[in-house]
Amino acid sequence: MGKPQPPYLSAVLSLSLLLAGCSSSATAPCEARMSGQRCHAERLLYQNDMLQARMLIASGDLDNYELAGALLDRAQPFDRRGEVSFYKALLKIKEGQQVDQVLPLLEHAADAGQPYAVALLYKVWSEPYLVDKANPGKALRYQRAYTGLDVARSGYPSFEQSLALVDNLLAPPPVLASQQVRR
Fold first, then answer.
1. How many domains is the chain partitioned into structurally?
2. Peptide linkage before 128 cis (omega within 30 of 0)
3. pTM for the whole thing?
4. How many angstroms separate the CA atoms of 64 and 59, rounded?
5. What is the pLDDT along the chain (183 residues), one digit of tens a residue?
6. Domain of 93?
């Protein structure tokens, strides 16, 4: 039997998947009046804002959520793949917002092809999560929708990997030994 894994290992693995798994390499097309250099700078800023927002949300620290929201707002005009809407929904869930504020964001993200949004919508309707009653028909619709995504055809992340990542994103951050209160 191998060594026991540190309690934060799954969080680190989730963060790695989160940051690398579905990053937007295909960001917004540049406007015709925008120079190549300015376009490149806008893309870099978008990627930076998204990376920082994801890290701040994944930290689980409520004090970071305001800045994450501002970064997502700034990135919104350049998002074409539903990432901003997905992370705004995730932020709202972590802040305890109502489902009527979360579901439209997730649906918008899923319509744009964001795989984690599709997986989270499946979770919402299959468990149920955030809603009072499961809806197997809706859950099946989102599971089938996932198979039509580019990422599903490439095999990474698989539907199961996306569900696992969503579960890890929704879980409270682990308490490290250095953060535990000694009695």
1. 1
2. yes
3. 0.79
4. 8
5. 444 444 444 444 444 444 444 444 444 556 656 678 888 888 899 999 999 999 999 888 999 999 999 999 999 999 999 999 999 999 999 999 889 999 999 999 999 999 999 999 999 999 999 999 999 999 999 999 999 999 888 888 899 999 999 999 998 876 655 556 554
6. 9-15+24-173
